[in-house]
Amino acid sequence: MADMSLRSQSTAESKGTSIIVTICIIVGISTVFVLGRLFMRIKILGKTHLDDHLTVVSLLLSYLTVGLEIWAVQSGDGRHVSTLSIEQQSAAVLSTISGFPPNVLAYTVPKFAVVALLVRILNPGRIHRIVLWSLATICLVLVLLCIIILFAQCTPSRAQWEFTITDKSCWSPWVLINVAILTGAYSAALDLYLAVYPATVLMRLQMNIKKKFILSIALGIGSISCFISIYKSTRLPSLASKDFTYDSADLVVWTVVEGNTLIIASCIPVLGPLVELALGRRVLSSTDRKYQKQSDTGGLRSGGIEMHGSRPMNRNGNVVGKNSTVIQSRHDQDDASSQESILVGTAGSAHRPRGIMRTDDVTVSFDSRSVADGRKKEGDGPKWGAFQSRD
């Protein structure tokens, strides 16, 4: 009687519905962010970048994962193995294994999108740029290694889901688990580095602490995926479970959550203008903000954050230059030698450098006699390249 009650409870116990609901919600949220990003880039700014394309690829991989997981749940994934027939077990394992490649790639490709965004905005030096792309590439190599091991761990490979095959040779499942744990740890460390790196650059700039904090959060919110990756790695031993279809369900869900968290995080720095359009007020800045769209000949096409202070006058009636902090992208200065080159001044020229621009407050005063006596030679006097005047 007790055995029948336990079996009945196992039959009723299923994670299938929660799996589908959870992954559909998180993918739906990331879809909203990506659509907002594309609207911002295409409709408002009129130009897309590599990070936008990579983000779209990541979202498509998430869609593929959701489709395969729906198939897996219909086949028996999320239920105890003991409640499934041999045919159901075979279909559940096949569909679950088929969903792993797009699932793990969906949290790998966004790292390249984040790197592309940071390289474009922060303009690091050549060596640091190579390091950033190399770190993301190493993560991709580890993920591809996991995929290869997943399908190569049994000979023939189909013996993993065709239980009628008796003449087979399989590695220990812990080979895949150990490599997957290494990959998860590396992925978490990379997410943390990509989140901290912008803050280290911003903290060296002479700007308001509140601005530094806001910009660091906007560019470093991907650190959340670091903690998700760590927790997900604790679920990896379920790959060796005898009750694979039930125990591996959490692993699938957390892998989807990790990838889509990165997608959302990579979109947030781009969505400032769209958020302000929707809310009708400032959100990411403590001062007035201006977003601009200019022609390609004008050189400024920003999808980032631009903050401007006031333009006060001193007691003598002299105009004091504004304090301006800008995060925007580079098109025409890819050869800048170091991240310090993002600190540049402009004089309202036709071509404005793209990156993080800080313009100090400048007080302009002059004696009326200097105007009457004549003008100084070109090159004398204040360096107007450090002064920016906007109404």
TrEMBL record:
Q: Which residues form a coiled coil?
A: none
Origin superkingdom:
Eukaryota
For the keyword Transmembrane helix, the answer is yes
- Asked if the keyword Transmembrane helix belongs to this entry, the reply reads yes
Sequence ranges assigned to domain Rhodopsin in this UniProt record = 37-276
Start and end residues of each stretch annotated as Disordered: 289-320, 368-391
Protein name (Swiss-Prot/TrEMBL): Rhodopsin domain-containing protein
> Which residues span the membrane?
20-40, 52-73, 104-123, 130-151, 171-193, 213-231, 251-279
Bias type Basic and acidic residues, positions: 370-381
Which compartments does it reside in?
A: Membrane
How does the entry describe its membrane topology? Multi-pass membrane protein
Q: Which Pfam families does the entry link to? A: Fung_rhodopsin
Q: Name one GO cellular component term.
A: membrane
Protein keywords: Membrane, Transmembrane, Transmembrane helix
**Stated family:** Belongs to the SAT4 family.
Q: Which organism is it from?
A: Colletotrichum gloeosporioides
